[in-house]
Specification:
Number of strands: 4
Radius of gyration: 23 Å
Strand content: 15-25%
Shape: elongated
Largest sheet: 4 strands, antiparallel
Number of helices: 5
Structural class: alpha+beta
Strand order of the largest sheet: 1-2-3-4
Amino acid sequence: MIKRFTAEKMSCVECGHDRTKVRCGSFGSDGITKRRYRKCPKCGAMFKTLQIVDGEIGPEVRVPYMTPQEQIDYRREQARKSGQVKLTAEEVGEIRYLHKHKVFRPVDIAAQYGISRHHVSELATGKRMWQDVEIPKSLAWMA
């Protein structure tokens, strides 16, 4: 027998419209939470709800919905805090300075910091995880 859980009526978090539509829903990896992504047909606001369905069916509650940029920022901070990154923000700033002012060749910078030449180019152009880091003020005066 397949369990079916009906979504509760939820009003919009932005405009207060009394009915929102479920765009998609799925069970969490734990198997006891039901996730639903909703959209208001009136104003277009989107939000996420969670419902515990272990044994008894619990109430559906709203959870914060992060924008794509907020998700990127959150993942960046989590990676930095967890120690999954090889460089510090200060080292990235130094690499940007060295690359921008052609103090060393990218291959030499890569060898000095133990990273690939490709990674030096990504850091210098501000792609991916370190785009928010700037050249340190202690080195900027030399520019």
